[in-house]
Amino acid sequence: MEFNKAYNRQEFMKFLQGRFLPNDFLPTEEQVTLSKQMNYTTEAVKLGSSEALDLVVYEIKHTSHHDARVSLSKDAFRLLNEEVEDRALIIFVPEDNNDNYRFSFIEITLDMVEEGGNRISKGYSNPRRYSYYLGEGISYYTPNKYLNEKGRVVNDEDLHSRFSVEVLTKEFYSELSDWYAWAIQIIRFPNDINDNTDDDKFNSEGAIRLITRLIFVWFLKQRHLIPDEFFDESYIANNLLDGFTPHAITDLFGKSYKSKYYKAILQNLFFAMLNSPITAEGSNELSERHFRNSRGDYDNNKLMRYEAYFSNPQLFVKLANKTVPFLNGGLFDCLDDKDNGIYYDGFSDRDLVKDKLAVPDFLFFGDEAGKNIDLSQWYGDKKKKKVSARGIIDILKRYNFTVEENTPFDKEVSLDPELLGKVFENLLASFNPETQTTARKQTGSFYTPREIVQYMVDESLIAHLKRTVSKELEPQFRQLLQYTDEPVDLTKEQRNDIMQSLYDCKILDPACGSGAFPMGILQQMVHILGRIDPNNLQWKEMMMNQAISETSDVYRNASENERGELIADIERNFDENINRPDYARKLYLIENCIYGVDIQPIAIQISKLRFFISLVVDQNTNTDPTDNFGIRPLPNLEAKFVAANTLIGLNKIDTNLFDSEGIKAKEKELKIAKHKIFGAKTVRTKRKYRQIVNQLRLDIADMLKSGGAIGNAEAQQLASWDMFDQNASSPFFDPEWMYGVKDGFEIIIGNPLYLKEGRASKFVFDGVRESNYYQGKMDLWYMFACCSLDLLKENGILCFIATNNWVTNSGASIMRNKVINDSKILQICDFSNFMIFDSASIQTMVMLFEKDRLSNDYIIDYRRLNGDTILSDVVDILAKNESPKVEYLTPVFNRTYFENKYITFSSDEAILDKISNDNKSIIYLTNKEVANGIHPHYDFINNKLAENTNFSVGDGIFALSSKELEELNLSEKEKMLIKPYYNNADLVERYYITPDNKYWIIYTDSSFKNPKSMDNYPKLKEHLDKFAGIITSDNKPYGLHRAREERFFKGEKVIALRKCVGRPLFSYSDFDCYLSAAFYIIKTNRVNMKYLTGLLNSKLIQFWLKNRGKMQGINYQLDKEPLVAIPIAVPSQEVQTKIATLVDYIICLKANPTEPINDYVDNDYIVSVIEDIIDAAIFEIYFSSEFKDKSININSLIENRTNVSEFYKDVKMDSSTLLKQIKLMKVELNELLMPILSL
């Protein structure tokens, strides 16, 4: 089947029957009676069905001239609903032109009822559409691979994969990643022209910028706004560039490193075409795009360069002026600061700069532009030894692109603008030569899946609308956000209230990355407006009233001509002959509602590109260059997306001084100027108001300083911040100064950076340690949460996706108390051990807070996945579907109770309360009774250390194997520093730790920080000196990083494995053993230590830890905080001794696994029997009244024997009263104990 040809029903039927669908496909041609409610559909024909796949095939004829995806999708959903089919393949063919068409896989969930013995659909939900755009001009590669080459669909999973955008995106990124890994070794950007050492530092960013700019241009190319000739290697060689031979072998070293294509074609396109008007203001002459012709205009980046590279420079200009519109004066601002010798882009005719800029032509063209490239070191994968990479232009040509952002309900099997974000975030994961780490780990950023974004957006908007419009309308709000035809029962007044609420809603993403959340919330706000005002009449009226109201500073301070232009501008924005309806919706929402901050300037640039694309897609193009091809210059987004550090605010001495009349007057002027900049259509207008904005900022900074509102340093910060500098990132963030948002935001939403201080360079936390929200062991995102609550207006909504361990992490105590005291927790959706991010093993949750310091004893919507889960379980928890893998709770939250505590909930709160409150003899371990093990830094050479040294993985540093210890041949004095060392769980079991250690540790405390401290230990000194460049201990050169109090390692103790899979692990030791930080050690004289070992290993304490401790999915994390929170019951010495003896039996059995004490069962079975008895004995201690009521007595029946063999014989006798009592307990106390016993 040739998918790049016009649609032909007969040919397509041959493809379906002969190559694509199973052999049971039955073709037919049946007319379908259509509903009168169709948007564009005029005819529907049933073409056949497949029983094996349970689907039907339809052909739809429609009248949409702009391929209205949303409306056509709704037509299809309605058709399936009326046909009572829940999925189908549908071919969408324009009625008057079959050159291009869509081939879609569609699914809905039917809401079925029985009427008169017949099943009738009353509606549908959860609609999904996945489409290929086919026909003339499309790229053949993608549909051919997935629809032709893969043959017949074999099952449901196969069908979904054929229409999967995710599969396509991964394949594209794989190719692009190979190109990037290859290119980064070759390209060079000049950067600081006087510094030859900075190239590697900035080349990665330069390459990412090049890729994202090129992809953005490729999206424009889909709208026929970029000439195809600019990407045609033959055309360029024959008509545009002199001597353009990308793959010519020029010498013994291979291909030429000439960079003509990047310099002459792409740089001129980026900086001097898309960024430059075609005509002068007020003129119809195509005069503005030309090559620079004098030395005086060297810093005018709107003029073209490299004229000498062209064989026909005027043809190049002519091609551009026939197709390429002026989009925005700051769209691709060249980042060079030529006066100071900074050339991040290197757009220059200077020979020195041209020589230092290398982006060779061979990187762009050819199916095998690079052959047998060794990328194994880059990927850390030996399979990447021989890779063939295509030129990036050829990679782009292989795939179909769509300029419309996909939604979870409607996805085109093409690459959409979200790709900009995914590429950016994924390329950030590339190797960073400066830090020797992956950049993603350095920045802590991960790309949020589209479905999660939409869920968070929907929940945030619903919470906002409930607060500002009406709580009673929540069902209607949820209907508005659905992509179904279900009518929404709202009065005109309610629709106006919703519209006003959206317009007044200020939304911030404090770590916006590439703009996923700002774009997601814009899409849903536009969707709501489309549902409540499909013809844009109310929205237009509101915008008109807003513009000409007496409160409008812009209108009141405008001249008559300016007022007329303001009204005319609104008329043009709503003119559907010029723009699609969504254009005006997006434009005014962007200007008034959407804000983003990110510390990385390149992230801000990419966010703006996505918003530019979203507006371009809704403009109708024409062929008139004097009309800029129908494209209205895009708004300027400098005041919407800023590069700044969200976590550091401006230090204001007296905030009241910001409200002085003089400051207010200047702020009004600033607001007007920023509005003018947002809508500036010409370079001259933007330049004029840019100067006004900068001067007003200086004036305000001077006034604040002289009035005592800020100090000298703050005044300098304010004055130095330049919103138009795309290279700079502000060291502070102030929404009033940067956005004019004074009273806070209605919604703050995002995916903040996950970054522990110990995992990254210390500089990441520089500037935030002085914050009241800083604490040790914290994650950076905790501070984002605290700062975001401060940035909200009262009753504003905060919605984050972040790591789920904040509810129990010791380093999150400040954040927890901030959330408890300053917010109302609306929802927690814990994904537990399901990894939302493909690229990272991070457990996450979605949390929704309302800024509210007053509400108490309120109900929380708490959801949690349990056990091993898959993607469908995530779908269930988001939709709140019943599922055995999902736990739904509605706990009552009391601020006073939870302050300074973990935030955990369980369906078994009554049992947990009984465990901790009903027993008079409860004690808790103190901080002095619990310690973490040794942190050597380092004990052994690990993989990372081995990569950059001559040592081998496993070589001992502070830790030694027995062989290494023997080879050192230490003196008796030196041996006194050598202690038995346990560094992992291999030798540690529940109850038992073997005394036969494999390793030894050089046990040195902080006194060995003195360089002379090891002089009396010459052989140990010689050994440690070999690793001087590797040891990172705070007590180097010879001291362990954290040696801990030695008393914890000597004598009797209980050992807790810090990270336990499946169930907690506690072990007893009465000999000296020095444990690594993989363990915690408990030493107390307040309770029998063997009894304590049995108690901690019991199911009751496992149950407690699962519900009130720290969990990582289904795994237990036994840090100090959960250990000191365990309620430890202290019974009589007699009972303690009985249970301690049972523990002795288990230790004996585990110490002799190969010596069975019974001829019929192995030792492990006997251990399990004894553990059951210990569990029952512990139950009786904690639930004594319940046991007494049922006349069940366990502890009095435990009789200690001289050895475990005798004890086992007793309890296994048929007449054993003890076992009978345990069986009775399980029956009589089943309701009480079932949640614990079922673990």
Reconstruct the topology from this structure.
Blueprint: H1 9-20, E1 26-31, E2 41-50, E3 55-62, H2 69-83, E4 87-94, E5 100-115, E6 118-135, H3 141-149, H4 156-162, H5 165-183, E7 191-192, H6 199-222, H7 233-240, E8 249-251, E9 254-255, H8 260-272, H9 313-323, E10 342-343, H10 351-356, E11 370-373, H11 376-379, E12 387-389, H12 392-398, E13 410-412, H13 418-427, E14 431-432, E15 437-438, H14 439-443, H15 450-468, H16 474-481, H17 492-503, E16 507-509, H18 516-532, H19 537-548, H20 553-556, H21 560-574, H22 581-593, E17 594-598, H23 601-616, E18 641-643, H24 661-678, H25 683-707, H26 712-720, H27 735-739, E19 745-750, H28 780-791, E20 792-803, H29 813-822, E21 823-830, E22 844-851, E23 858-859, E24 861-865, H30 871-879, E25 886-889, E26 892-893, H31 895-898, H32 909-917, E27 922-923, E28 930-932, H33 943-947, E29 959-961, H34 962-968, H35 972-975, E30 978-982, E31 991-992, E32 999-1002, H36 1018-1025, E33 1053-1057, E34 1059-1060, E35 1066-1069, E36 1074-1075, E37 1079-1082, H37 1089-1096, H38 1099-1108, E38 1110-1112, E39 1115-1117, H39 1120-1124, E40 1128-1129, H40 1133-1151, ...
Parallel strand pairs: 3-4, 6-13, 16-17, 16-19, 17-18, 19-20, 21-24, 30-36, 31-35
Antiparallel strand pairs: 1-2, 2-3, 4-5, 5-6, 7-10, 8-9, 11-12, 14-15, 20-22, 21-22, 23-26, 24-25, 27-40, 28-37, 29-32, 30-32, 33-35, 33-37, 34-39, 38-39
Helix pairs in contact: 6-13, 6-23, 13-23, 15-16, 15-18, 18-22, 19-21, 24-25, 25-26, 28-29, 37-40, 40-41, 44-45
